[in-house]
Write a structure and sequence with these properties.
This protein is α/β, with parallel strands linked by helices. The chain contains 14 helices and 13 strands. It has a 6-stranded mixed β-sheet.
Length: 419
C-alpha cells in the first residue's frame, strides 16, 4: 500500500513538472528565479546554441527552449525523470549533449541595408548610431558596377524566422561597418557568433577612422579569420569629392573598349617598359566584372630595346592595345620628344590594331584636363595614333586600394592590391 502511494505521488509530481513546462515553467521558475537568473537565460529570451556544422540547428534550439530554469532539487528530479524516459524518447537528430548556452550576439541596435546587383545580394550592417552613409556612393560607383538599393534601414536581429535566416545566409557578402574606436574584442566576438548563427560564408569587416589622427586598430580576427579593411578619414573625404572623376575615366575606358569589341570582347594587351607590378591595378580593373563583355582576357607584355620582333608577335595576339607609362621613370616622354620611349611601338600598334589603342600615364601629381591638354600639345602623335589618353595620379591608387580589396572580396575575384 505504501509503495502504491509513493508511485502515485511520483506520477503526480511528473504531471506537475510537465504542466509547469507547458505554461512557461512558472511553478519551478518562481522559486528559483533569483538563484538561477545570474547563471541561465530566462525562457522568454532567445538562446544561442554552440553546435557543430552538421547539427540540426532548429531541432536543437527548440529542444533547448523547452528546458526550464531549476534549482538543485528540481535538477535532481529532472535527472530521475530523464533516466526513466530516455529509453522510450529518442533524442532529436543531430543532438549534441555538450552544448553551451550563450547570450544572443546581436540586438535591436544593429541595422542593415540590402543592396542588389543582378542575382547577388549584399548586406551592409552597422551598429547604431554609426550610419556609414559614405558607403552608399561607393556602392553606386562603377568600381562596384552600380549596386541598387532602396536604402531602407531595417533592424537586424535574431527572431527565430528560418526563412529570414535562409535569406541572409544566401547573401553573396555581408559587410559589417564600425568606426575604428568602436571595434574591439567584444565586436569581434559578436560578428563571429552572428556568422555562425546564420551560416554566413563571405564576411568583411570595414573600419573607418573617427578623426584624422586616430590610429586604425590592429586586425582582430576571430575564429573565422575575416578580412578587416581600414579607411582613413582622408580617404572617405576623397571618395565624396573625387570618386566621381575616377568613375568617369573608367566609364570612358569601358565605352571605348565596348564600342570596338566583337561579341566575345577584346583580347587586351598592356605594353610597357615598366614591370607588371607597376600597372597591376589597371590589369585588375580590366579583369573586373565591370568590364565583363567588353574584355575577353588581359595579357601583359614587356617592351625591351632588343626585342622588337617579339613585340610584333605579341601585338598580333591582341585586338586592343594599352600603352602604359609611369612618371616614376623620370618624366613623361612617350613620343615626339627628346629621348622618347615609344615612338615606334605606338606607330606599329596603331597600324596593326586599326587605332584600337589607348595611352595610360600613371603616377602623376595632377591628372586633370589641363595636364592632359598640355601633354597632347607637346606630343601630338598620341592623339593621332591612339583613341584617347588617360591620366592617373599616385593619390588615386593609394586611396582606392581598400575599395579594390573590398570589391575583390565581394565578387570573389582574384586577390591583389594597388601598388
Amino acid at each position: 500500500m505504501r509503495k502504491t502511494n509513493c508511485k502515485k505521488q511520483r506520477t503526480m509530481e511528473r504531471r506537475e513538472i510537465k504542466r509547469g513546462w507547458s505554461e512557461g515553467s512558472e511553478m519551478i521558475n518562481l522559486e528559483n528565479e533569483e538563484k538561477s537568473s545570474a547563471k541561465q537565460p530566462k525562457l522568454s529570451e532567445r538562446v544561442m546554441v554552440k553546435i557543430d556544422e552538421d547539427d540540426d540547428f532548429e531541432d536543437l534550439t527548440s529542444e533547448c527552449s523547452k528546458r526550464p530554469d531549476s534549482d538543485e532539487g528540481s535538477e535532481t528530479m529532472n535527472l530521475k525523470n530523464e533516466e526513466e524516459t530516455s529509453a522510450n524518447q529518442p533524442k532529436p537528430e543531430g543532438f549534441n549533449e555538450n552544448f553551451d548556452l550563450v547570450d544572443p550576439p546581436i540586438s535591436d541596435n544593429w541595422k542593415y541595408v540590402n543592396w542588389q546587383k543582378c542575382a547577388s545580394s549584399l548586406w551592409v550592417v552597422t551598429k547604431s548610431p554609426y550610419s556609414c552613409d559614405w558607403i552608399k556612393d561607393v556602392l553606386k560607383s562603377e568600381i562596384f558596377n552600380e549596386y541598387k538599393s532602396d536604402e531602407k534601414t531595417e533592424t537586424f536581429k535574431i527572431d527565430g524566422d528560418w526563412k529570414f535566416r535562409k535569406s541572409v545566409s544566401s547573401c553573396s557578402c555581408v559587410v559589417f561597418c564600425f568606426e575604428s574606436d568602436g571595434w574591439d574584442t567584444e565586436s569581434s566576438r559578436e560578428v563571429d557568433d552572428l556568422s555562425s548563427y546564420y551560416g554566413l560564408k563571405n564576411v568583411i569587416i570595414l573600419l573607418s577612422e573617427k578623426t584624422p589622427d586616430s590610429c586604425p586598430p590592429r586586425q582582430m580576427n576571430g575564429r573565422h579569420n575575416f578580412p578587416v579593411l581600414n579607411f582613413s578619414k582622408q580617404q572617405i573625404a576623397w571618395y565624396k569629392d573625387n570618386l566621381k572623376l575616377y568613375n568617369m575615366k573608367i566609364e570612358k575606358m569601358k565605352t571605348i573598349l565596348k564600342g570596338s569589341a566583337s561579341w566575345t570582347g577584346h583580347k587586351v594587351g598592356i605594353f610597357s617598359r615598366s614591370s607588371e607590378s607597376e600597372y597591376e591595378w589597371l590589369k585588375m580593373e580590366l579583369e573586373s566584372e565591370y568590364f565583363r563583355g567588353s574584355v575577353e582576357n588581359v595579357q601583359s607584355y614587356y617592351i625591351s630595346n632588343r626585342g622588337f620582333q617579339q613585340f610584333m608577335t605579341n601585338v598580333s595576339n591582341c585586338t586592343f592595345g594599352i600603352l602604359y607609362h609611369t612618371k616614376n621613370r623620370g618624366r613623361i616622354n612617350i613620343t615626339d620628344v627628346t629621348d622618347s620611349l615609344y615612338d615606334e611601338e605606338l606607330d606599329y600598334m596603331s597600324l596593326m590594331m586599326n587605332k584600337n589603342v589607348i595611352v595610360v600615364v600613371d603616377d602623376l601629381n595632377d591628372g586633370n584636363d589641363e595636364e592632359k591638354s598640355r601633354i597632347l600639345s607637346s606630343q601630338p602623335s598620341i592623339k593621332e595614333k591612339a583613341l584617347d589618353l588617360f591620366l592617373f595620379t599616385t593619390e588615386e591608387k593609394k586611396l582606392l586600394e581598400p575599395l579594390v580589396k573590398m570589391r575583390n572580396s565581394i565578387n570573389g575575384e582574384p586577390k591583389g592590391t594597388i601598388k
